[in-house]
Every structure is written in C-alpha cells, then in structure tokens.
Amino acid sequence: MGSFSIWHWLIVLVVVALLFGGRGRLSGIMGDAAKGIRAFRDGLKGESEQADDTTAKPLPKEREKDNARG
What is the pLDDT of residues 26-59, one digit of tens each? Predict the structure, then answer.
C-alpha cells in the first residue's frame, strides 16, 4: 500500500500513450467522438435559432355563445 512500483508506472505510461498517442487507434476514436459532439452542439444551436425565429401567435378566440354551450 506504499508507493507505486515499476509495474504501476509502466501501466500508467501505456494508458497515457494509448490515450494521447500520435496515430493510435484510441486517439482516432477520441477525435471522432469530439467531432460528433461538436456536430451535435452545432445541431442544437441551429434548432434553437429556428425556434427563436418563430413567434408564438395567440389562439383565435371563440365566441362566447360557443363557450356557454360547451
């Protein structure tokens, strides 16, 4: 339970190399995931802009005779 042994440091170095390596598969996957998240955020921004452009219109009022019957 004391300090890390050489095996612990080697495992940490391998994990770091996989995550932040130059042309590794995992770094490519991370880059693709980042592109997907960015596209998702851009899509949400586009929807909110479209939703803001449309203004809410009041519903047409019914005649009071129709309300009294109903």
Answer: 767 778 889 999 999 988 887 655 555 567 677 7
Nearest to 27 by CA among 37, 19, 35, 36: 19
SS3 label, residue 23: coil
User: Would you say the C-alpha torsion 8, 12, 17, 18 has a positive or negative sign?
Assistant: positive
SS3 27: helix
pTM across the whole model: 0.37
Contact 19, 27 (CB under 8 A): yes
Q: Three-state DSSP class for 54? A: coil
